Amino acid sequence: MTKIYGTAAEALDGLLHDGMLIAAGGFGLCGIPALLIDALVESGVKDLTVASNNAGVDGFGLGKLLDSRQIAKMMSSYVGENAEFMRQYLSGELELEFNPQGTLAERMRAGGCGIAGFYTKTGYGTQIGEGKEVKLFPTGPEGQPEPYILEQGIFADLSIVKAWKADATGNLVFRKTARNFNPPAAMCGRVCVVEVEEIVPTGSLDPDHIHLPGIYVHRIIQGAHEKRIEQRTTRTREEA
Amino acid sequence: MPWDRNQMAARAAQELEDGWYVNLGIGIPTLVANYVGDKDITLQSENGMLGMGPFPFEGEEDPDLINAGKQTITELPRTAYFDSATSFGMIRGGKIAAAILGAMEVAENGDLANWMIPGKLVKGMGGAMDLVAGVGRVIVVMDHQNKAGDSKLLKRCTLPLTGTGVVDRIITNLGVLDVVDGGLRIVECADGVTEDDLRKATEATII
Known about the structure:
The structure holds two protein chains of two kinds.
Chain A: H1 8-12, E1 21-24, H2 34-43, E2 48-51, H3 62-67, E3 71-76, H4 83-90, E4 95-98, H5 101-112, E5 117-120, E6 134-137, E7 146-152, E8 156-167, E9 172-173, H6 182-187, E10 189-200, E11 219-222
Chain B: H1 5-13, E1 21-24, H2 28-31, E2 42-45, E3 49-52, E4 75-81, H3 84-92, E5 98-101, E6 105-107, E7 112-113, H4 128-134, E8 137-141, E9 153-154, E10 169-171, E11 175-180, E12 183-189, H5 195-200
Parallel strand pairs in B: 1-2, 1-5, 5-8, 6-9, 8-10
Antiparallel strand pairs in B: 2-3, 3-4, 6-7, 10-11, 11-12
Helix pairs in contact in B: 3-4
């Protein structure tokens, strides 16, 4: 049985339904599954809930799915780079659930590990903690009780992620900070589709250097990626 | 003369101790990296990197290598990459010695607001709530007053909170203050600023 598919559309075939929950990897525009996002736009699937740290920028990444009004709700930690997002949110067209970045990552990881909930200090005493169960644990100095809030694992219908290399069995290697949310996002989906820059022969990746084992990966496509830089910052050689 | 941005960053750099792992926020905190001198400081970027290097030379930018502000950066010999869940594991787990962050408001009880202005600004908290909940020491670098001249060091925060009772030390353009029982305590005044000036510019209780 092969995990390798020819195109993003083929890789998503049979996996999509309106109202589904999709977990997407990426941080800003770094390491986003841009080809799979394009295929979601083409598919016309709608009323999506998307768990992703960011919401893309206008006209690129998840911004395309916002432009086409296919997203009903975002679960994110930072959405400041997208004017269309802001417009839809402020007009009430789009639901937004803010998650602290670490809580979002851990909710994905937990879902992928079969953990339905966990307690974290993050967000206690803020809007994020409102309505959530609070429990004291003796983690303070000399065992003093400290308050934690209950957060739930994310169990997504579909994960879409981007990696650098895959072998045919789905073992993945990521590159630099393009790893970011991709492993936890991959883990929390019932089905995970990954797009990579290169599919390499099975056996050519060092088994000690696999970042995410292929058990989490169900379908793979290879494609050419447009990698955009959001904030191009440089220094001159004289400064160095 | 009150401190300028670079003087505030230089003062904040004095807070860091040799061997520390540190997370720097966006804005003035980012400048702190320029003033660590000979100290062995490892910078964490919460998108998944320890050992953050300087900006790349022109033409050497790598879209796969950015910091939490989405700026292109470089790696160092000591650099390690990891995923976001691991990154916030080390933040929440207390492995990061200090975070230096910006703020919109700080209250005398250490409450911090730096992520949202209701009805105006919908951007999100990013990693700020996790950082203030988990790191060893939270140092805030901010202007003492807003553009209208009102104190940003308050008795109570008016904006949605990032964390409650989380701030340890505040470095402003006017000086350095610690959050202690009962209010704020002046640690140091900026050059040419008197304690009286500081008190007049501050709404929060100074003990």
